[in-house]
């Protein structure tokens, strides 16, 4: 058991620390800070998907009044070599995807920069484009590992034989499309080079993450680069690392000392430059006895990666965690295509993988003539099926039972096709899981100024509530009122903070803040002198050697499918989550329901349509790429089980950023089957699929 802190502020509802600043527009986002003389960068992007730049002529751009600088591969600064090849822009004449950054114009106004960029003449030597993902390709390969360091393949027992011998067999292929993160604030970087120091005001999920990626690339010592990100308007993973736009802004700034070079990535540019969820093809086989007890589970995934840089989504990873079965297998295979580089999108891996697994479980329940909740309960496991380790706390069954009670599941007629007027009406359920991990290497500092406690750590608030929840943790660790805590985050000049990603933020930073607070009390007592200060490092943890730390949940949806038009509406969603102690009910509720809305959006709308001839996303803006709007969202509720995880960290909490999206789309898809009797195994659930 971990040495816990006593909850006083933790668990209480508190308005956001930054609420007034945000709603009055005074919270400074990357483009908003008071900056030295502002100039504007507009990029030149490749208009072919593969080949070489034969010629690039910037003379017309340079002739435009107000243009200060142009950059191309012919005159750009040299970057240090890097494994992150996505970042190595303007270093050669090669083009690896359509939209890749191949030049820049900096001008006095953004309009001039944009106009001038359009005047840069580029000729190419083009090569044939290969942008077609298919499970039948003969050049699929196994990467060394998949995202987050997961194994590419796992196997135990003899899954093929067990599947063949099973009384009930389900074998289907499920697909999820290419999807793009669309945070409210597009990616933005303002770069200022002054006295051999570079400052970046950046929309990024981790100031230190950005600094450690960018400083070596630009040939700078870490002390020469400061990254500021006090407020970030959403990221969902797309700001989990710097991308090439930060590099381009920095390159231009270092040519223009004293000028703040502003690169506000446009919504359209985000569809090529800042990552996306790779499309996935999941072949799932489930074998069970007639009572629904699984004997065989296999999940074989095919997905795309980019020629420029390998990114392998860990789509089958959740299938390793969910259900007990003696014979199991998971695999990942990649197709290397001439496409932009995929990256993280909220719950990478778990989100598309659980869509496949949880629709398959619904199909198996029907094949076994079993309630889908009962099927999941029968296959619950107290130990992680692959590692044999106990979970720190697993209450999937509690989530399913509580959800069933609240949702009114007991009254459900399992037969599909109930009709009310012009609408088919149905309900569906799916399970959720997300790992509860911690980053390492955090440092926090506590200082008493004679009146209040300053708590400093390079954490980030990407709209999630870090400003508020971390102050609550600090207050409880210091045993003082929250009002006496002056939290400082979002700056690489602060003690090292890890990324706001992978739902690890509050666990990682909170543990470190608690460590620093305890060390402060040890050193300075309960009545410290003004100026007393203590800095402490995050303690090492062997948790994952002893336990499998995961959160769980159950998602419920009610849908209506129009009999004539096929339109799908979702009048009701309920999520019940087992996530340890809730630090702040208000911000946690917002995280969970926000993620469920994102899952609803995935279910009904989100689809980046790739024209394979040009490897170009044709619906590259919010007019064509639909995300759920208010009119899509009816009654969405998220609740949690009252629990404390006694093993995980001194707060007893697990992350809540991502689990809310996991399984949400499967619950909606399963409900559309219950409504119509039509099983759709692809996303999104567009009207044509129900006609
Ligand atoms: Mo999350 S996709 O790890 O920011």
Secondary structural class: alpha+beta
CATH class of the largest domain: Alpha Beta
According to CATH, the homologous superfamily of the largest domain is Aldehyde oxidase/xanthine dehydrogenase, molybdopterin binding domain
Give the rounded overall mean pLDDT.
98
The largest beta-sheet arranges its strands as 3-5-1-12-9-10-11
- Tell me the β content: 15-25%
| CATH architecture call of the largest domain | 2-Layer Sandwich
Uncertain ranges: none
The gross shape turns out to be: globular
Q: What's the story with the biggest beta sheet?
A: 7 strands, mixed
Q: How many distinct folded domains?
A: 3
- Rg for CA atoms: 26 Å
Q: Assign the CATH topology of the largest domain.
A: Aldehyde Oxidoreductase, domain 4
Q: Hetero groups bound?
A: dioxothiomolybdenum(VI) ion
Q: How many beta-strand elements?
A: 26
Alpha carbon gap, first and last residue = 55 Å
């Amino acid at each position: 058991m971990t040495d816990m802190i006593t909850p006083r502020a933790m668990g209480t509802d508190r308005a956001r620390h930054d609420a007034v600043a945000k709603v009055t527009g005074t919270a400074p986002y990357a483009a908003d800070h008071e900056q030295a003389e502002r100039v504007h960068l507009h990029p030149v992007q490749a208009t072919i998907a593969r080949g070489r730049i034969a010629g690039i002529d910037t003379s017309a751009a340079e002739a435009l009044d107000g243009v200060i600088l142009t950059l191309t591969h012919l005159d750009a600064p040299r970057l240090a070599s890097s494994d992150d090849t996505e970042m190595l822009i303007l270093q050669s004449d090669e083009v690896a995807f359509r939209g890749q950054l191949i030049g820049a114009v900096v001008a006095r106004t953004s309009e001039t920069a944009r106009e001038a960029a359009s005047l840069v003449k580029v000729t190419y030597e083009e090569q044939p484009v290969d942008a077609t993902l298919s499970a039948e390709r003969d050049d699929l390969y196994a990467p060394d590992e998949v995202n987050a360091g997961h194994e590419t393949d796992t196997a135990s027992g003899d899954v093929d034989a067990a599947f063949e011998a099973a009384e009930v067999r389900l074998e289907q292929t499920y697909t999820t499309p290419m999807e793009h993160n669309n945070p409210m604030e597009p990616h933005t970087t303002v770069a200022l080079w002054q006295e051999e120091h570079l400052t970046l005001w950046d929309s990024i999920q981790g100031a230190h993450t950005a600094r450690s990626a960018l400083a070596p690339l630009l040939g700078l010592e870490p002390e020469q680069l400061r990254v500021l990100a006090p407020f970030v308007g959403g990221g969902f993973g797309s700001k989990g690392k710097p991308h090439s736009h930060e590099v381009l802004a920095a390159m231009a700034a270092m040519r223009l000392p004293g000028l703040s070079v502003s690169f506000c990535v446009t919504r359209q540019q985000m569809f090529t430059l800042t990552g996306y969820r790779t499309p996935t093809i999941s072949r799932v086989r489930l074998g069970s006895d007639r009572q629904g007890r699984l004997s065989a589970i296999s999940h074989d995934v095919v997905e795309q990666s980019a020629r420029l840089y390998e990114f392998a989504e860990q789509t089958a990873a959740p299938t390793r965690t969910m259900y007990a079965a003696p014979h199991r297998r998971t695999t990942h295979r990649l197709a290397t295509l001439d496409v932009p580089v995929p990256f993280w999108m909220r719950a990478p891996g778990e989100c598309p993988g659980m869509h496949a697994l949880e629709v398959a479980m619904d199909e198996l329940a029907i094949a076994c003539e079993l309630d889908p909740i009962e099927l999941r309960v029968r296959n619950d496991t107290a130990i992680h099926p692959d590692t044999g380790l106990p979970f720190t706390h697993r209450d999937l069954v509690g989530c399913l039972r509580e959800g069933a009670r609240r949702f009114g599941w007991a009254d459900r007629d399992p037969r599909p096709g109930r009709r009310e007027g012009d609408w088919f009406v149905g309900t569906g359920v799916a399970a959720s899981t997300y790992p509860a991990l911690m980053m390492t290497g955090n440092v926090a500092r506590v200082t008493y100024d004679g009146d209040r406690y300053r708590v400093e750590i390079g954490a980030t608030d990407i709209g999630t509530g870090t400003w508020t929840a971390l102050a609550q943790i600090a207050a409880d660790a210091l045993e003082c009122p929250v009002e006496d805590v002056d939290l400082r985050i979002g700056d690489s000049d602060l003690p090292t903070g890890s990324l706001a990603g992978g739902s690890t933020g509050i666990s990682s930073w909170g543990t470190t803040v608690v460590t620093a607070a305890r060390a402060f009390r040890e050193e300075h007592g309960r009545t410290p002198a003004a100026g007393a200060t203590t800095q402490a490092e995050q303690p090492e943890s062997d948790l994952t050697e002893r336990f499998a730390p995961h959160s769980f949940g159950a998602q419920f949806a009610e849908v209506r499918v129009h009999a004539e038009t096929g339109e799908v509406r979702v009048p009701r969603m309920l999520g019940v989550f087992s996530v340890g102690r809730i630090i702040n009910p208000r911000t946690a509720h917002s995280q969970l329901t926000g993620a469920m809305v994102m899952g609803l959006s995935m279910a009904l709308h989100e689809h980046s349509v790739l024209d394979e001839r040009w490897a170009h996303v044709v619906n590259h803006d919010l007019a064509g790429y639909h995300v759920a709007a208010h009119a899509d969202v009816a009654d969405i509720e998220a609740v949690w089980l009252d629990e404390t995880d006694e093993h995980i960290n001194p707060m007893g909490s697990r992350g809540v950023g991502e689990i809310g999206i996991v399984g949400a789309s499967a619950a909606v898809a399963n409900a559309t089957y219950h409504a119509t009797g039509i099983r759709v195994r692809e996303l999104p659930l567009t009207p044509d699929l129900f006609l």
